[in-house]
Amino acid sequence: MSSNLLKTPKDRGRAGDKIFSGVSLGAGILILVILFSVAMFLVVQASPVFTADPETVTGGEGFAAYIFPIVVGTVIAAAIALLIATPVGILVALFISHYAPRRLARIFGYVVDLLAAIPSVIYGAWGYLVLAPQMSTIFTWLAENLGWIPIFAGPASQTGKTILTAGIVLAVMVIPIITSLSREIFLQTPNLHEEAALAMGATRWEMVRMAVLPFARPGIVSATMLGLGRALGETMAVALVLSPGLLSASLISSGNQTIAAEIALNFPEAFGLRLSELIAAGLVLFVITLIVNMIARLIISRSKEFSGAN
Amino acid sequence: MSKRIDVKDLNVYYSKFLAVEDVNINIEARSVTAFIGPSGCGKSTFLRTLNRMHEVIPGARVEGEVLLDGDNLYDSAVDPVTVRGQIGMVFQRPNPFPTMSIRDNVLAGVKLNNKRISKSDADALVEKSLRGANLWNEVKDRLGRPGSGLSGGQQQRLCIARAIAVSPQVILMDEPCSALDPISTLAIEDLINELKADYTVVIVTHNMQQAARVSDRTAFFNIAGTGKPGKLIEYDDTTTIFNKPSMKATEDYVSGRFG
Predict the structure, then answer these.
(1) pTM value?
(2) For residue A63, which phi and psi values (nearest 5 degrees)?
């Protein structure tokens, strides 16, 4: 009797809306489930190593003593990679977005995207066959002339297969990631703000510093974090380029190891407690990545008020 | 401060397309000059040639001369960066830098080209510029807050403060009120009247009442049709343009018969 014309009949109308919200909710839940089950797998499989007799763990002094050097090695390799890749990546991205003539920029951008698609084993082979022999002469020179700095202490590796070489190979792999993402963000800088800077008499570089870089800051942090993710987790290239050894402050003598390479090299023959060790190493890598990402979020959110999003 | 502008035989191009043809105009120092005309007639394009912002667009170029107190802006030895430092610009949409505080926005132009300024000088300049833009009383307690937190009208006055902080010779305004409500528009118009005492002001506006209210001289631009270049039809005292213009097209436009 009471016929409200505004009522939507139940059988038609909002079906598409409901399906879409259901699908996107499902996708969101799926991510959480995957992340949770990976974490659970790592914790459960790794747990024997935490309760095991320290003498039975590789090295004979417990898990902490085993994992510490390779955590440091991982961090060193990733730090070298980012130290090189972040400035280079940002500069290349700026060149493409704001300096190169348009046609050149398009070709350049395409090449950079192509670099990101090269599989890591190729980079590893290149590092092993081409870069490492070249680096060994540089290492010898560094050891002779700057050997008093601990990171360049001799004896220099004759094969060039050191953590520094590995870091450089990682940098080459990370640069395209940082470049592509930064370029996209630089291109999104509002024209309005670029013109505001230019109209005040800013040079191109000042315009970039005033309008482009501040706008792109959160994006640059994200791009760097994605690059860091690749550097931390990269296995094949490091396994090929680095001849592993004990923890050493020198970047130019053989030694050091990263978590990912350690797992990859030893996994095929591992069983029992050794397997748990390696999975525990994986858990540690997982935690490092989480911490790094949280720090990145913190950096981004601290400047939220001045991001222009309000 | 404040110089005159003389434009001689200026043609403005986007690549091969002639956008504005053969403009000759003399803009007096310490006056307000308004450019009016229908959409697409090239008045904004022409305005942007007065501080070499036109050439920021790829392929854009000009032929002819623009003289600032006799010095040609388009001389091959002239750096556009220098030109823009002397001829400030306020845009259609307020564009304070979102990542900077109100204070830093005002000082943005002053700190360019590696110039240094002491904190006390900077404080004085911020206050002077914001007072000059009639914004000081509204923002003096929150100079450290982001400029993007202000209302649209306040943001536009912040942009004017930013423009006058570098003591330019000329201020160009490209439809500065078109994104603002009537109250904010009034505030900007009052401000333009005050700026006239120290600066040469050139304003592009779609609003004929606004041109009549704020300007001393008015230039009417028109376009013969799509794809044809815009032209300066008539340039005279504002009262003449609005009361007894000499051209038929001007009369039609200001009386609302077209456009």
Answers:
(1) 0.83
(2) -70, -40
One CATH from 1.10.10.1590, 2.60.120.20, 1.10.3720.10, 3.30.360.10 for A61-307: 1.10.3720.10
B91/A217 Cβ within 8 A? no
Q: Enumerate the β-bridge partners of residue B26.
A: B6
In B, which residues are within 8 Å of A196 by CB distance?
A: 91, 95-97, 159
pLDDT-derived band at A11 (thresholds 50, 70, 90) equals low
Q: Which residue has the tokens 């630089």?
A: A186
Residues A90-135 have pLDDT tens digits of: 999 999 999 998 889 999 989 998 988 899 899 999 999 999 888 8
CB-nearest to A215 from B51, B84, B99 is B99
Contact A246/A255 with Cβ under 8 angstroms?
yes
ipTM score here? 0.89
Q: What span, in angstroms and rounded, lies between the C-alpha atoms of B79 and B177?
A: 30
Question: Nearest 5 degrees, angle CA A236-CA A239-CA A244?
Answer: 165
CB of A49 within 8 A of CB of A277?
Answer: yes
Q: Is A219 on the interface with B (CB under 8 A)?
A: no
